[in-house]
Design a protein that fits this description.
The protein is α+β, with helices and mostly antiparallel strands. It contains 13 helices and 16 strands. The protein has helices at 3-68, 71-83, 88-104, 135-142, 185-196, 248-298, 313-356, 359-372, 378-409, 421-430, 453-471, 528-538, 563-566, and strands at residues 109-114, 119-121, 146-154, 157-172, 175-184, 200-206, 211-214, 222-231, 237-246, 417-419, 438-442, 449-451, 483-490, 493-500, 542-547, 553-560. β3 (146-154) and β4 (157-172) form a beta hairpin. The longest helix has 66 residues, at 3-68.
Length: 567
């Protein structure tokens, strides 16, 4: 292990161990406290569920008392004593009155039977009428509300529900009526727990464990739970109310503690690395810089440059390394550009061929239609003339697109001659005088270039046009929209910079800006920057784009100076 590695290791150990110990202690304390809270919440939930069950039974008993004292029962006894049995019309009236009574008492089950256990009315399950049912008297003998399963009609279908039942018997004039009432337990037991919150969940199941209802469609992982057993009239288990308290909050808190501890550990490691680097920096600074450069190139970062201040053997090695990376970078860029240009030349030729084919028949059709419109309806002539004129304009626009693509595909090589870059820039800027604010920062006595003047002029005009479109969104006022043009020399090359204070572009689009037919503007063919890069590459130069959103864009062109001048 190197000296820097050993120093960093011990700094990290000294910082990480106390933090890790504190994190473990905090984790254990929070877990202990929350477990105690979960146990208390479970006990409270179990108590609430038991109390709600007893309250429901008491409410059913009161409902049974009210049902037995209702005018419906008294009137029914009178009719039975008078007539002996009920007629068809009386039965219909009885069913309607029984339904109204069941609803008014908030019941889910309501059954009337005579002394022979014959069902006279059962609005919760109409098919039960005229059948013998001994359950009302069985519940009556229990002398207290009981829990049982019952069939009811829900939405036109038979449903099986768990109900609390109570029964009362009323006799008069030698006749006896037994009324059985019930209230579904699912909602009565689960709704208070659902509203209570606090992570409490509950599930109602039958004796076999099949779920009847729950407080949520999908229960969370249960931290602690308890089973409240519900017995039937014979004292046997008929259902289970499983009350549980979710440990989701505990798990989240423990996860947060673990993440915070991990974050502190990572921060401590970073701090240790920084301190170790500062301590050993003076001894290994230049070698580390060179090593970092080698690693960067290994990752494919050819833009990395090694900066070594000492003019010794290491400094010379760093200079040789930087020269090598520049040459590799230039060769790679030329190869990639050549491949892209070749591919897009084929696309441009194919596109031009496909667009030109329909132009001649379209134009011939338009001219033929214009010759024949005179014999049409008077109003048709004006419409026809306007339509054909529009079509001809579109034909001209298509020809213009074809011409631009053809120009890109057949662009000749540069006709190299001595060119003053400042003179080219000045001529181009004269065309924009007064339309937008332009700041000139042209280096005096700039060496002449061996280049094609017309192609360089096209490069400057394309960049200025893009810059003007960019600042147009901010207005052409002298204090708002601004374009800055600079020229200078650096490292044997002439540099041209065009900068604007427009909205800029997304840095993620940087690699696509110079691709043919790619544009971020609503209008245009997307060939402007592709042509610029083609010309710059043909001159042996490079172009780069830089931008920050809402802070403008900057294009930098590097053109090589003649060998004698650059030396």
């Amino acid at each position: 292990m190197t000296l820097r590695g050993r120093i960093t290791f011990w700094f990290a150990a000294a910082a990480v161990v106390p933090i890790a110990v504190a994190g473990v202690v905090a984790w254990l304390q929070i877990s202990k406290g929350y477990r105690a809270d979960l146990d208390r919440a479970l006990g409270d939930a179990h108590t609430d569920a038991s109390r709600e069950l007893e309250q429901t039974r008491a409410a059913v008993a009161r409902a049974a008392d009210g049902a037995s004292q209702s005018p419906l029962i008294a009137g029914l006894l009178v009719e039975l004593a008078k007539e002996g049995e009920l007629g068809a019309a009386q039965r219909r009236d009885l069913r309607q009155q029984a339904l109204a009574t069941m609803r008014s008492l908030g019941l889910d089950l309501y059954t009337l039977v005579d002394q022979g256990d014959l069902v006279l009315a059962a609005p919760h399950f109409a098919g039960h009428v005229d059948e013998v049912d001994t359950e009302p008297r069985k519940v009556l003998r229990a002398r207290a509300p009981v829990v049982a399963w019952a069939k009811v009609m829900r939405g036109g279908k038979v449903a099986r529900i768990l109900v609390a039942l109570a029964s009362r018997s009323v006799a008069d004039r030698g006749r006896e009526i037994t009324v059985l009432v019930g209230r579904e337990l699912s909602g009565e037991l689960l709704e208070p727990l659902r509203k209570g919150g606090g992570g409490v969940e509950a599930r109602l199941t039958d004796a076999a464990g099949a779920e009847v209802a729950s407080t949520s469609p999908k229960l969370h992982g249960l931290g602690v739970s308890e089973d409240l057993e519900i017995d039937d009239i014979d004292g046997k288990p008929i259902a289970h109310l499983i009350v549980a308290v979710s440990d989701e909050t505990l798990v989240k808190r423990l996860r947060d503690v673990a993440l915070y501890t991990l974050g502190l550990v990572l921060a401590a490691i970073v701090a240790a690395v920084l301190v170790g680097a500062l301590v050993s920096r003076r001894m290994t600074r230049d070698l580390d810089a060179l090593m970092a450069g080698v690693q960067a190139v290994a990752r494919g970062d050819l833009e990395h440059e090694v900066r070594v201040g000492a003019p010794d053997e290491v400094g010379k090695l760093a200079d040789a390394f930087n020269t090598m990376t520049r040459e590799v970078r230039d060769a790679k860029e030329r190869l990639l550009q050549a491949e892209r240009v070749a591919a897009w030349q084929d696309i441009a030729r194919s596109l031009a061929h496909e667009i030109k084919n329909p132009l001649t028949p379209i134009q011939m059709s338009v001219e033929t239609m214009r010759k024949t419109y005179a014999g049409s309806h008077p109003s048709f002539g004006e419409i026809f003339d306007e339509s054909t004129r529009t079509i001809l304009e579109e034909v001209q626009r298509l020809k213009k697109i074809v011409g631009e693509f053809t120009q890109f595909a057949r662009m000749p090589g540069p006709d190299r001659r001595a060119v003053d870059l400042n003179d080219v820039v000045g001529s181009a800027l004269a065309l924009y005088q007064g339309s937008v604010r332009v700041v000139r920062e042209l280096a005096p006595s700039l060496p002449a270039l061996e280049a094609d003047r017309d192609q360089l002029t096209q490069v400057v005009l394309n960049l200025l046009e893009n810059a003007r479109d960019a600042v147009a969104s901010r207005g052409s006022d002298q204090s708002v929209g601004r374009i800055t043009v600079r020229t200078r020399t650096a490292a044997g090359a002439a540099l041209l910079e065009v900068e604007d204070n427009g909205p800029g572009f997304d840095p993620a689009l940087k690699e696509r800006l110079f691709l043919p037919y790619f544009t971020t503007k609503e209008s245009g063919t997307g060939l402007g920057l592709a042509i610029v890069r083609r010309i710059v590459t043909d001159h042996g130069g490079r172009i780069a784009a830089y931008s920050e959103p809402e802070k403008g864009a900057r294009f930098v062109i590097e053109l090589p100076l003649p060998p004698v001048l650059s030396s």
